[in-house]
Every structure is written in structure tokens, then in C-alpha cells.
Design brief:
about 375 residues, alpha/beta, Rossmann fold, 12 helices, 8 strands, about 10% strand, binds coproporphyrin III, binds fe (ii) ion
């Protein structure tokens, strides 16, 4: 008798990510792709281009996705999950439309999508769904028979996402000078987004006050802070702060910025800070530049000891979490009873985004939601 886990009805998994430049010639066209119609000031684009050039014009994100792809394939093989895994990006090669075309011509009809974005927001969820709808429309125009595309739920509170970050904070604390270790504060960081996007993130009934985006981050931050307190026996103050703000200065975005926060903490006599980038799945450019370069330089200038803890990246526990999430969804699609796995106070996120969830400024078709034009 076989007990192989059953991924049916799905016949393939697509790892869908942001994408990033692979060399100096890619930087400007990549930024053009990312900011198409997004109203980002020219000055900000020049500045962000410099962040990439500082690292040879190469973002680490593509290699991190290749490592995650390997980790997923290894985990699936070891656990008897027979499901091919593909990889595509929204903003750089391998482009989503090309990979989806390849999946269709390979014969895949029921595709499940994992995004490298754990939380609920327009940028972190609906924008991926809009790009999926665009890719499906392009394939339809080519006369291809469209597959059915579903998206895995947001996984911010899955233990396979949270636990590696708890270990990361413990490791960072151990790297701080011993005399400041117990007094260190924890600064949980995530991408700043416009207040208006935060307030309308998630299902309509939870809009206002930072919406699902802020609530989810606060829940993860609290889970990690509680676990670190239990593990170390030291109750460290913590706060959720933001990084990587773009957009026009007169439009309000979530605050405080990590650099302002470090200055304020230093002013209050806090002896050290651990920066915990809970908003990101891997150590991509936002982490390498905004935290490891800019915020770390700010701390050095202040004379404030800081450490930056690891993101999940290709941690085998994260790969196992993806397996758990996909088997959970597959079972639901087959009509089987499943208990979704989630830590914290919020419960598992929805499988299908309801109408009005993380609305776009200008409404556009989005795949894998209740009101999607494609099943
Ligand atoms: C919530 C969020 C995530 C986390 C969820 C997820 O991971 O998806 C994320 C990830 C990422 N953001 C990335 C890069 C960029 N994001 C930009 C611009 C923006 N991001 C926003 C939000 C988010 N971004 C927003 C509201 C804007 C303003 C423009 C707009 O409203 O759309 C810009 C334009 C220049 C600038 O203004 O910074 C760039 C270059 C990379 C690649 C890094 C690499 O190359 O290693 C990654 C993983
Ligand atoms: Fe971004």
C-alpha cells in the first residue's frame, strides 16, 4: 500500500518571484519594468539604481530563488511528492509569461503558484495576481488552451516561516557583544507601503488602521519576540518599523523608518538593536542595501551596536512548509477535511481573495481570486 502524499488535482507548482537584474546592463531596464505606471520619482530611481551598481549590478534574488527551487525539489523528492516545480518572475527573466507558456506546452493543466511574498497587501499579493492574469491573457491571445491557476495562501504565520526567523534572532543576539546582549531591543522591519495601501489591505471588513498588512506583521513580530523571551529568559522591548520607502514625499507611507528608529533608540540609551527583516523571504537587495549597508552605517555613525538576523531563504523548514501548504490546498480542492497550519492570533489566511481585498488604484483583472476572469 502506498502512502505517498497526494498533490492532485495539481500537476505543477510555479515559484513566482519579483525578479532582479543579473548584471549592470540589466539595472535600468529592470527598474523600468518595476515602476511602469507606478509614479516613482526619477530621483528615487537613480538612487535605487546606485544600490544595485554598488553590488556590481546584480541582485542576489535570482540566485536565492534558484536555491529555493533546489530546496523545494529536494524536499518533494525526499517526501514522495511527485510535482514538477517551475520558476518565473514578475519583473525579470525568466519572465512569468514565458514560464507559464512552457508549463502549458509541457501539458500542465492545474497549476499552483507559490509567491515569494508572505503577507497581505497590494504589492505582496494582488499585484502578483494581476501579473498572472496578464500572462494568462497573453497565452489566450496566442491561442493556447489556458490552464487553471490557483495561488497558495499568504504564509506569514506558518511555523516553517516563523521558526527559522526565531533561530535567526537568537543567533544575532549571540553575535552581539556580551555586555549589550540582554539590553538589546528588537526592531522588526518590513517594506514600507503607502498608508492608503496598508489601510485597504486584506478583506474589506478588516480595512482601516493599517489593515491586514500591519496586523499580520505585528502578529509575527509578537510570536518571535515571545519565543526569544522564552528561550533567553530576557524580556526585550520590540517594535515594528519600516524600510525601503519610495514614492513621492508628500504621500504618507508607513513609519517610522529603520534609520530614524535607530537614532531614536540610541537617543533613549538603548545599548544595541537586532534588526529582524520579517517582511522578506530572502536576503535580497532591500536587505543587503537598506539594512546591511544604509542602516548599519547609520548605527556605526551613532556608535550603536546592531546585528541583522537572517531571512528564511532556502531553509529546509521553509521548503517543508511549502510542501505542507500545497498538500493542504490540494486536499481542500479534492473536498477532503484539513486543518490549516498557522501560529498566532489571526488564523490561516484565505485561499481565494474576496472582492475588494487589497484593491488597486485602477481596477485591473487579477487571477486566482473570487472575481477572477480565469477560473
Ligand atoms: C511590500 C513589498 C515587497 C515585499 C513583498 C514581495 O517580495 O513582493 C517588495 C519586495 C521587493 N521590491 C523589490 C524591488 C523594488 N521595489 C520597488 C518599489 C516598491 N516596492 C513596494 C513594495 C514591496 N516591495 C512598493 C509599494 C513600491 C513602490 C512602487 C509601487 O507601488 O509598485 C522598486 C522601485 C524603486 C523603489 O522605489 O524602491 C524596486 C527596484 C524587490 C527586488 C529586490 C532585489 O532586486 O533584490 C523585492 C523582493
Ligand atoms: Fe519593492
Amino acid at each position: 500500500m502506498s502512502h505517498a502524499p497526494d498533490p492532485s488535482p495539481y500537476d505543477a507548482l510555479l515559484l513566482l518571484s519579483f525578479g532582479g537584474p543579473e548584471g549592470p546592463d540589466d539595472v535600468v531596464p529592470f527598474l523600468v519594468n518595476v515602476t511602469k505606471g507606478r509614479g516613482i520619482p526619477k530621483e528615487r530611481l537613480k538612487e535605487v539604481g546606485q544600490h544595485y551598481f554598488l553590488f556590481g549590478g546584480k541582485s542576489p534574488i535570482n540566485d536565492q530563488n534558484r536555491a529555493l527551487l533546489d530546496a523545494l525539489r529536494k524536499d518533494f523528492a525526499e517526501h514522495g511528492v511527485d510535482l514538477p516545480v517551475y520558476w518565473g518572475n514578475r519583473n525579470w527573466a525568466p519572465y512569468l509569461t514565458d514560464v507559464l507558456r512552457e508549463m502549458v506546452t509541457d501539458g500542465h493543466r492545474r497549476i499552483l503558484v507559490l509567491t515569494t511574498s508572505a503577507y497581505t497587501s497590494y504589492s505582496g499579493c494582488r499585484q502578483y495576481r494581476e501579473n498572472l492574469a496578464d500572462a494568462l491573457a497573453a497565452l489566450e491571445a496566442e491561442g493556447l488552451e489556458l490552464p487553471r491557476v490557483d495561488k497558495l495562501r499568504q504564509y506569514f504565520n506558518h511555523p516553517g516561516f516563523v521558526r527559522p526567523m526565531i533561530d535567526g534572532v537568537l543567533k544575532s543576539l549571540s553575535e552581539l557583544p556580551e555586555d549589550v546582549r540582554d539590553g538589546a531591543h528588537l526592531a522588526f522591519t518590513t517594506h514600507s507601503i503607502p498608508d492608503a495601501s496598508a489601510n485597504t489591505s486584506g478583506p474589506v471588513e478588516g480595512h482601516g488602521d493599517g489593515g491586514a498588512y500591519v496586523r499580520e506583521h505585528l502578529d509575527v513580530a509578537r510570536l518571535i519576540a515571545d519565543a526569544v523571551r522564552e528561550e533567553t529568559g530576557v524580556d526585550r522591548p520590540w517594535q515594528l518599523v519600516y524600510q525601503s520607502r519610495s514614492g513621492a514625499p508628500h504621500i504618507p507611507w508607513l513609519e517610522p523608518d529603520i534609520c530614524d528608529h535607530l537614532e531614536e533608540q540610541h537617543g533613549k540609551g538603548v545599548p544595541a538593536v537586532v534588526m529582524v527583516p520579517i517582511g522578506f523571504v530572502s536576503d535580497h537587495m532591500e536587505v543587503l542595501y537598506d539594512l546591511d549597508t544604509e542602516a548599519t552605517a547609520k548605527a556605526a555613525e551613532l556608535g550603536l551596536p546592531v546585528a541583522r538576523s537572517a531571512t528564511v531563504g532556502a531553509d529546509p523548514r521553509f521548503a517543508a512548509a511549502v510542501r505542507d501548504l500545497l498538500l493542504e490546498r490540494a486536499a481542500k480542492e479534492r473536498g477532503a477535511a484539513v486543518t490549516p497550519c498557522a501560529l498566532g492570533a489571526l488564523g490561516a489566511s484565505h485561499d481565494l481573495c474576496p472582492v475588494g481585498c487589497c484593491p488597486a488604484r485602477a481596477p485591473r483583472p487579477a487571477a486566482a481570486g473570487v472575481d477572477s476572469p480565469y477560473a
